[in-house]
Amino acid sequence: MDPFLALLSSLSSSLSASELHELKFLCKDKIGKRKLESVESGRELFSFLMEQQLISSHDVDLLKRLFKTIKREDLVSRLTQFIEEGEASAPDERPDINERRLQKVVIEVICENVGRDWKMLMRKLNLSDVKMDRIVAANPHDLREQLVQSLREWQKWKGKDAKRSGLHIRLLCCVKLQKVKFGALSRRCVKHSMGLFC
Q1: Cβ atoms 11, 42 nearer than 8 A
Q2: Measured between alpha carbons, how far is 64 from 75 in angstroms, rounded to an integer?
Q3: What domains sit in the chain, N to C, each tagged with a CATH number?
Q4: Which residue among 49, 77, 120, 143 sits deepest, i.e. has the most Cβ atoms within 10 Å of its Cβ?
Q5: Is the pLDDT of residue 179 over 70?
Q6: What is the pLDDT of residues 122-143, one digit of tens each?
Q7: Distances from the Cα of 194 to the Cα of 52, 60, 181, 191, angstroms
Q8: What is the pLDDT of residues 43-70, one digit of tens each?
Q9: Based on C-alpha coordinates, what's the Rg of the chain?
Q10: What is the pLDDT of residue 82?
């Protein structure tokens, strides 16, 4: 069973009739009137959004915005968890569980130490400016979230190739360029999480 479809089915079951009505209203500019009138469940609405390529297992930004608008932060959290746990990729494309755990630690260390020049790091990771601009537009006042979402986007893009060692090397290049100094604790975290020396 496709994990994303299973998640959408579960999210659909969590919606009340009035919440579904709100979501349909919010999607008026995305789905034709006739199709929207036929929608009787969240599953049907999500299916139309997938048909329009507005949502996918790799792109849940629209769903998050919709759920935020109807004040269902719990559903936003479930989508975020789905992405963070790597369920968005096919199983053979995902890094193994230990790799994902270590990547999470690396991302935390990066977020603690890379500031306003985070785009420099993402360019070292070859993430496109278009993707970065989209992330900034979605999180205009949250610098940390911009960086976190950019790193997640890079992880999704690279799949199994998103190795912590590659991330580590590029991070060091960026840190050197920015002259950012790691604190002792952060340095130990990087060493521990990667088995490499800074």
Answers
A1: yes
A2: 8
A3: 3-84 (1.10.533.10), 95-194 (1.10.533.10)
A4: 49
A5: no
A6: 887 788 888 888 888 888 888 8
A7: 41, 30, 18, 5
A8: 999 999 999 888 988 788 899 999 999 9
A9: 19
A10: 82
Q: Quick one: tokens of 19?
A: 């919440």
Structure tokens, 10: 């579960």
For 53, the token pair is 């390529």
Residue 166, pLDDT score? 57
For residue 53, the tally of other CB atoms under 10 A from its CB is 8
Residues in CB range of 196: below 8 A, 6 or more apart = 165, 168, 190
What would the pLDDT profile of 81-101 be if each residue is shown by its tens digit?
A: 887 765 554 444 455 566 666
Write the burial class of residue 153 (CB in 10 Å: 0-12 exposed, 13-18 middle, 19+ buried): buried
Reported as type and span, the H/E element at residue 33 is helix 33-38
**Cβ–Cβ < 8 Å for 62, 55:** yes
